[in-house]
Structure to design on (487 residues):
């Protein structure tokens, strides 16, 4: 049966009567007009503690980066959920235009993660930040790497990983790692985008001293479009992290050189301030919210900041769900409503659907599975080269069912738009496999389930739950929900 994006598929809702402890299934609705008081675990956590963030960069009358005269660009730059930049405005460029920049650099800090990049000041949101062509400088202690990366106007991203510049192979593990560059030393750098390279798909070339790397844009990414109106220093817009000092000098952008012998008065945004942030990984902050992002009929919805979890630590697993069970995996399950993805970093996942408050939160050292046990619902995640998908996901007590992404499931952009979604699960029988179907604005994706389903699996909650392997966060909201319940 084809599913529609409205809630009309719930009428009439089939009632299944099963033997044993499982009750008849019925439809439940929740519009969040008031706080429903659902069951929560760690969903409004107080750890890690809030962080004091320092951004102190821009023009400086110093000489760290080896320029021809005193004066340079740089300072303390800190990765954070809040963007900060100091950059030169440029004539608007697109992925159809050639772009070039070069200069000298010196990373004097021991910890940093910063973008030297072409970007759009109007679309600064998350990492990988849309509308960017970047040289990313990354330092942790005594190890310093340089990467090339980009993201289109539709949040599809790419990079030169696992080959930033040159690579060596660990003789024991076989793992390839990038060659580091030295801190507290002046280096020459360049960043070039050529729209005609890579069979006209476009390519980015970066150099540091004599080492170079090429990042070929994925086929189709150039057609996504992108607009660039600045070049300069941009913090990695992710979550709170440790910052460090990075300096640039003698910067040439598309043939125009700035030696910083005087203040160029480039554009700046939040680049000189000290503030406190709660956006610290994995400080969960989701549940009932007196907002209206998802497009519901009235104020009030479900959502917030949702990080990936970690089943090795009970403090790093979280959920917020309605008591709906027990329901059996042998029953037909349905859900639907509205969704808005407002933020989404690379390496982030949101899980939403049916789960078990005990089995889905078991503490374990096993990191082989990302999905928790006894979960059936939708996943919102990458991979980054494709942007963000909404697709069906399931795991009982063994391996998770893997979605093939062929054909592709529906995409969702982290732009705050409101969408309609549906979920239908049909249990397996001796003559057919089980199937989960998910739709977003009418576009569907199917996941077939075979005999690996544990027939004893059950669910007692419906809502948000974290993954078992850690990662970054999403800002996501749901409203006007309908879902199967046992009472």
């Amino acid at each position: 049966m084809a599913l529609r994006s409205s809630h009309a598929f719930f009428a009439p809702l089939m009632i299944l009567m099963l033997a044993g402890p499982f009750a008849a299934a019925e439809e439940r609705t929740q519009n969040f007009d008031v706080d429903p008081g659902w069951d929560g675990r760690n969903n409004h956590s107080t750890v890690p503690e809030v962080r004091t963030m320092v951004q102190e960069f821009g023009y400086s009358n110093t000489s760290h980066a080896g320029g021809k005269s005193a004066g340079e660009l740089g300072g303390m730059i800190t990765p954070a959920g809040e963007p900060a930049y100091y950059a030169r405005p440029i004539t608007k460029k697109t992925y159809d235009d050639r772009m070039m920049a070069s200069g000298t650099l010196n990373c004097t800090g021991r910890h940093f993660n910063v973008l030297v990049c072409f970007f759009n000041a109007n679309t600064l949101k998350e990492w990988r930040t849309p509308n960017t062509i970047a040289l990313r400088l990354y330092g942790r202690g005594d190890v310093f790497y340089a990467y090339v990366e980009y993201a289109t106007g539709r949040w599809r991203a790419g990079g030169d990983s696992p080959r930033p510049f040159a690579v060596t192979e660990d003789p024991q593990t076989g793992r390839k790692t990038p060659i580091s560059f030295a801190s507290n030393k002046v280096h020459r750098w360049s960043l070039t985008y050529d729209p005609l390279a890579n069979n006209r798909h476009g390519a980015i070339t970066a150099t540091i001293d004599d080492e170079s790397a090429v990042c070929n844009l994925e086929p189709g990414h150039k057609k996504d479009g992108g607009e660039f109106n600045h070049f300069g220093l941009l913090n990695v817009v992710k979550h709170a992290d440790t910052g460090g000092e990075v300096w640039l000098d003698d910067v040439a952008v598309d043939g125009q050189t700035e030696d910083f012998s005087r203040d160029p008065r480039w554009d700046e945004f939040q680049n000189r301030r000290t503030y406190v942030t709660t956006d610290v990984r994995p400080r969960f902050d989701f549940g009932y919210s007196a907002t209206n992002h998802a497009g519901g009929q009235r104020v009030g919805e479900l959502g917030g900041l949702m990080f990936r979890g970690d089943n090795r630590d009970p403090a790093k697993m979280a959920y917020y769900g309605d008591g709906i069970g027990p329901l059996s995996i042998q029953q037909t399950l349905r859900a639907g409503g509205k969704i808005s993805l407002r933020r989404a970093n690379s390496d982030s996942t949101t899980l939403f659907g049916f789960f078990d408050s005990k089995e889905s939160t078991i503490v374990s050292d096993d990191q082989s599975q990302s999905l928790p046990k006894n979960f059936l619902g939708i996943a919102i995640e990458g991979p980054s080269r494709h942007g963000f998908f909404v697709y069906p996901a399931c795991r009982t007590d063994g391996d998770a069912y893997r979605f093939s992404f062929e054909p592709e499931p529906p995409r969702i952009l982290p732009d705050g738009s409101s969408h309609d979604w549906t979920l239908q699960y049909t249990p397996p029988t001796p003559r057919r496999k089980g199937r989960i179907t998910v739709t977003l604005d009418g576009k569907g994706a199917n996941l077939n389930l075979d005999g690996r389903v544990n027939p004893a699996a059950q669910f007692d909650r419906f809502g948000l739950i974290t993954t078992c392997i850690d990662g970054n966060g999403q800002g996501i909201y749901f409203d006007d929900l309908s879902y199967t319940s046992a009472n």
Confidence is low (pLDDT under 50) at residues 1-20, 162-168, 170-177. The longest strand covers residues 473-485.
